[in-house]
What we know:
Layout: H1 6-14, H2 23-33, E1 38-42, E2 48-51, H3 52-68, E3 76-80, H4 85-97, E4 100-103, H5 110-120, E5 124-128, E6 130-131, E7 134-135, E8 146-150, E9 174-180, E10 188-193, H6 194-207, E11 216-217, H7 224-231, H8 233-237, E12 241-244, H9 249-259, E13 265-266, H10 268-275, H11 282-285, E14 291-294, H12 301-309, E15 313-318, E16 327-328, H13 335-340, E17 344-345, E18 350-353, E19 358-362, E20 369-370, H14 373-379, E21 386-394, E22 400-405, E23 409-412, E24 415-418, H15 419-426, E25 432-442, E26 446-455, H16 464-474, E27 484-487, H17 501-511
Parallel strand pairs: 1-12, 3-4, 3-5, 5-8, 11-12, 13-14, 14-15, 26-27
Antiparallel strand pairs: 1-2, 6-7, 9-10, 10-20, 15-16, 16-17, 18-19, 19-21, 21-22, 23-24, 25-26
Helix pairs in contact: 2-4, 3-4
Amino acid sequence: MRRIPAELVKRYExxxxxxxxxxxxxxxxxxxxxxxxxxxxxxxxxxxxxTFADVERVARRLAAGLHERGVGPGDTVAFQLPNWMEAAAxxxxxxxxxxxxxxxxxxxxRKEVGxxxxxxxxxxFVTAERFGHLEFQPDLCADVPVVGVVGRxxxxxxxxxxxxxxxxxDPADPALIAFTSGTTRDPKGVVHSHQxxxxxxxxxxxxxxxxxxxxxxxxxxxxxxxxxxxxxIPVVDGTPVNLTDVWDPGKxxxxxxxxxxxxxxxxxxxxxxxxxxxxxxxxxxxxxxRYAGLGGSSVxxxxxxxxxxxxxxxxxxYGSTEHPSITSSRHDAPExxxxxxxxxxxxxxxxxxxxDGEILSRGPDLCLGYTDPELTAATFDEEGWYRTGDIGxxxxxxxxxxxxxxxxxxxxxxxxxxxxxxxxxLLGIPGVAEAAVVAAPDARLGEHAAxxxxxxxxxxxxxxxxxREHLERAGLARQKWPEEVHGVEEFPRTASGKVQKFRLRRDxxxxx
Length: 512
């Protein structure tokens, strides 16, 4: 893990941003304060309805069952589940055990899941027997001591009596290892402590508008922000949990009308797909779109102006899995700041721009580092600064606007796609000499992946269908598959021979 300067530790503790609470302590207090709060899963395959107390009992029976199997503080518990009740139970159980939880996005494929399990070597892995393209693959977790499969044998992990209280853990120790795509060829394991995750949870809970209504969470709980919004913030606030395991705008609109559920934001696609659906009725649905906190993807000004024109109160935020909340506009900030900037630094956060305009940040919710020590050393410096890979500008009032990206990633509907990871798989196609993957504009999702291939003499450019067949055989998650393919005789290059991807992106923009 990175070295956190002593003066920063002292400051974070003195300000109350870092406390002696573990995530288990935070959950235990919140659940005890609002046991009768609604917890509902809206799902065609695994619907569920109950209360916080009902879910907590499952979680504590699971915690007791895992503890009987030797799981406790310092261990790791991985899960790959959709937005189901059992995902909350696994996360809450891990927290009261003092174990680090490893959420895995439910649509990750064999390649990503195999890498993650090998990287963290968990004591426990809980997954689904089948959901969409997710299917239990026993060989992937053959070396994991405890495996539970929802829909098959998950209940066998539950002890008869629940575990009471929480097991003691050091709040500076890891509480979460979240994997995300970036500039590396494999997912990056981002390590958060009880302190960094606890501060992020309390900070977000305090910053949300008090009249935001009952929220529907559609973001995958395998993602950092989806998990925090689904399983932590509602417990701190004592507000209902409503999950959906598939994003279907028509069904979401129906849930809004039937249950009075609100959509509070996320990647812009979640909001725009509702507005563009034929079932959208302004008089019926706009009252449940009171606020739109946008982030996790590029946020075009055209979108923020459109939403504001409908009377939706828009505010933007900027962060990453490594540093979840760097900047945000307060919901009561001036409209121009909310619509056209990514906000100002949040509590305890410092930001600065280097000579190239790259954003460097540090703060009490910044992660401990990566599971890869070399990546940690390359990304964080001795003074505690994190190199975000994003380019930005600061206005006279200290509000930040993201203008470009140095990191070699595509952000499709809030999902990070590592260009090098996809390129490496594409190079396995017979006849491909070189591959470059870049972001292409997408009216619905913000961006999608576009592949440029240079073929060896005598080999034809593969069709998009052929390319996708290869990616499916390789086990790469479908969200990462390129959605267009182009052939080139030669790539534009720098003097040192590096492919000039900005020129490929410019070419894509002209074509589209």
